[in-house]
Specification:
seven-stranded mixed β-sheet, about 55% strand
Length: about 120
């Protein structure tokens, strides 16, 4: 079985930083693209940042220049460095990964990020 487990969320003041981690474990032969999504109360889930197996990255316009996604292919881990956080970044953040030759999508359970003074 494959599991994705996120960590690193919490409460931070506006302008602060957090680093999220997501570790994939289980029967994994390969991982394709990985990404971070978020969902705020009353809003649709949105893609925050994505990274391919080769390291190509993409970001939502709302986080460009503030967030940075990276991955460690040896550790099967994807990171999201979040700087200059704003109250509108408050949401549950979930990671997603395409696992195996079939690139089946797997999701983590999510971690809460709250930006408030």
């Amino acid at each position: 079985q494959v599991q994705l487990v996120e960590s690193g969320g919490g409460l931070v003041q506006p302008g602060g930083s957090l680093r999220l981690s997501c570790v994939a474990s289980g029967s994994i032969l390969s991982i394709g693209a990985m990404g971070w999504y978020r969902q705020a109360p009353g809003k649709q889930r949105e893609l925050v940042a994505g990274i391919t197996s080769g390291g190509w990255t993409s970001y939502a316009n709302s986080v460009k220049g503030r967030f940075s996604i990276s991955r460690d292919n040896v550790k099967n881990t994807v990171y999201l460095q979040m700087n200059s956080l704003k109250p509108e970044d408050t949401a549950v953040y979930c990671c997603n990964a395409e696992i195996g030759s079939s690139r089946s999508p797997y999701w983590g359970q999510g971690t809460q990020v709250t930006v408030s003074s």
